Structure formats: structure tokens, C-alpha cells
Hints:
With 315 residues, this protein is an alpha/beta fold. The chain has helices spanning 21-26, 28-41, 45-51, 54-58, 60-82, 86-89, 99-106, 112-128, 145-155, 178-190, 211-222, 245-257, 262-271, 285-293, 308-314, and strands at 4-9, 92-95, 135-141, 161-168, 171-177, 196-198, 233-234, 241-242, 274-280, 298-302. The protein folds into 2 domains: 4-129 and 210-314, Malonyl-Coenzyme A Acyl Carrier Protein, domain 2, CATH 3.40.366; 135-201, Alpha-Beta Plaits (2-Layer Sandwich), CATH 3.30.70.250. The chain starts with a strand and ends with a helix.
Amino acid sequence: MADKILFQFPGQGSQAVGMGGSLAKAFPEARAVFNEVNDALGEDLFALMQDGPEDDLRLTRNAQPALFAASMAGLAVLRKATGRDMADLADYVAGHSLGEYSALAAAGTLSIADAACLLRLRGDSMQGAVPAGEGAMAAILNAGEDVVNDIVAEASASGVIQLANDNAPGQIVVSGAVAAVDHAIESAKARGIRRAIKLPVSAPFHCSMMQPAAEAMEEALAGADMKDAAVPVFCNVTAATETDASILRDNLVTQVTGRVRWRETLLAANAAGVSRFVEIGTGKVLSGLVKRTLDEATMVNLDSADNLDSVLDEL
């Protein structure tokens, strides 16, 4: 049946000073989520989210739990406003990279406190996996996957490099050693691809150089209390749905070094009957990817008190 709803949760890069502030000001249930995350981390992350400095908020160890907290606050507001639980609100959930933790918390697999602590560890371990200056990422725009695969194969002569994010048609990100990523940019330009741009990130996410972080997360997740998902979760590394807690756990480990198959996820969701996408959290990045990937889909986003009504209308 068409017209199903998928809740999608953003990943790193969507953070912004002031995030979540409108929801916290207007809704006590949003404030309660921010307080819960603060308590779990033992610090006032919400103050950093509101006041910055931006450079500190952008740090992986802060951006990841901050984006999660904003998504969970939005979801809490939505649950309160509708009086409905997750299984009655959405047919599926998905999250981009760290957003998969938001999706799992939304589906009841992880508690808010546990997910926040796991994301703090994830941020620290990903940042520490590769010495500063040794890794990089680049976006290769307006090129097909086959072309990017050829570029990656050629650039691998200069070091580790992988296709890290397949975000939307013509929007692919590669990740790896600096020399290999530089090689890929030059190779893309030699093929007439004008937009091959190094990204302002601090580490080469979603490639094999993140293996130390994957091992840290495997150990942490082994001890995490994870329940089966109440709503099917589209997983980054498979672009397929899963509800079994043990498989969801394994996929979170694989995700650290594996490709985020977001374009494939959107196509699979659409094939499953999803035509409405609700982005919960900061910004509209994922809504933009839906627009690039699917011709006929409805997108709404909940990142402030001002757009709650438009989301409620869609539900």
C-alpha cells in the first residue's frame, strides 16, 4: 500500500548553534529530553547547543549526541501532541549515520540515555581512530556510482579510499587517506567532473581506517541493553529493514567502516510504499536528498515549534 510514512533522522553536518532551542522553550517534554541527555553525559550539552561556540559544537564528540538529543526532543513533542506511540506514527524509521541511533531509540531499541552515551563514545573513538591530518573525505557531485567506483579504484594506488556515502543521485562521498582522496579529486576533474570537493571533516568516516572505532563500538554495544524494534528500521549498511536487536547491533558496528547506502534506502522505502517522509531533528538535509532521489514524495521536517503544525497535518 502506498502513502506509508517514514521518519528520518539527520546525521553529522546538520548541527547548528541554537538547535532544539525553540522546542525546549515551547514544550516541557522537549526540555525533559535535553535534561535526560545532560544527565546521561554528566555535562550541560544543551547549553553548548544553544550558545556554542560553534567550533566546539562541531566537534564529533559533541555534534553526535547533540543531533541525537534534538531528534529525540522533536519526537517527544510529536508523541505528546498526537497521543500516539511510534508504531502508530510511522511505518518505518531510518537515520543517516549517527541518525541510525536516533532511529533505533525512536523504535524502542535503545533508551535515550544509553544512545547518548554510545554516541559520545562513537564520536570519541571515531575522532581518535586516525591521527589528525591523515584522513579526508570528498564529495563527488553529478557523477554516477560506476564512474565514482572507477575513480576510487584508480585513487587506491595512493592509499586507502572507499565510497563512504551514497546519498542521492549525483551526490556521492569518498573517504580515506589524504593522498588517496586528493588523487580521487584530481581523477574526477580529469574526467570532466567539475564538482569534486574536499569536505570540512576531522576524520575519514565510513572507511576501513575507522576499524579501531568499530572495535570500540563492538565492545560497547555488546554490553548495551538493546530490544527488538517496534517499527522496522532501514539500516545504513544494507538499505533493508530489520527489527531483530542482535542484527541491528551488528549493523551498528559494521556501519562505522561501511557505506551509508542512503540513496538505496530511499528507493527501497519508496518500493515498500513510502511516499511521505518526516525529518525529525535539525535542518532539512535529508528532505533535500529525498527530493533529489524520488520524483513524487512529500517531505516535512520538525526542528522548531514553528513547523509542528505542518508535521501534524501530514500525519
